[in-house]
Amino acid sequence: xxxxxxxxxxxxxxxxxxxAPSRARRRIGAAVRMLAALALAGGVYTAFTPGAFAEDxxxxxxxxxxxxxxxxxxxxxxxxxxxxxxxxRGPSLIGVGSASVEFQxxxxxxxxxxxxxxxxxKAPQFTPDxxxxxxxxxxxxxxxxxIPAGELTEDLKANPDALARGGELFRVNCTSCHSFGGAGxxxxxxxxxxxLGDATPEEIYAAMLTGPQNMPVFGDNQISPDEKRxxxxxxxxxxxxxxxxxxxxxxxxxxxxxxxxxxxxxxITILVFTSLWIAGKx
Length: 282
Known about the structure:
Cytochrome Bc1 Complex, Chain D, domain 2, mainly alpha, elongated, two-stranded antiparallel sheet
């Protein structure tokens, strides 16, 4: 049996220190490995998605530059610099597209005079050219849906099949809010669906594409561009041009309710006076 000399004890202590790293060394090693893993993941992500970090330095077109001046003078207080939005005042315009701007600004709904249940249509504050310039600026800084160029419905008005399909699509998707005669109607919380009597094809197309106010968005995957044009054709020919397809008096075009009330009141009045006349003669 060997004696436990001081030299042997020092050798055992030295061996333990070399074989088992201290807690501080373990923590430092773990931190180094974590940083290396994060750096590797970041490098791989950057290599495979370079577009996410590329800054868009594309210059604005002439129309967009003119639209930016109008935007900075009239819209920036609510929608923020570069259309980023202002909390509790105005939403971001990134991704809304030129179609939304042409509808909201072109119908006078924007700029709003005050915060209320919904923006009502009024006389536009910008000319059609200025509206398109603002729309082009919003389109170039954020992208989004656009109204197709050219005539939307002229080639469909003489097509009875397109008119029939447009009527069916209108009855399925639009009448619950705008009524069968396109007169509009009340919604909840002081909101309402506007009348379609004076809406232009571009306004109707933009409304379906962007879903303003309380209207749902009917994207091209829900209602195709051709189907949108057929709906507009039906609205133009059967609601706007043919003012009263059911007779001489439209009675608000709210459906059978007003017609029933009118017939009842007029009929009762005639019957009462007829009865009085018969009684007087007898």
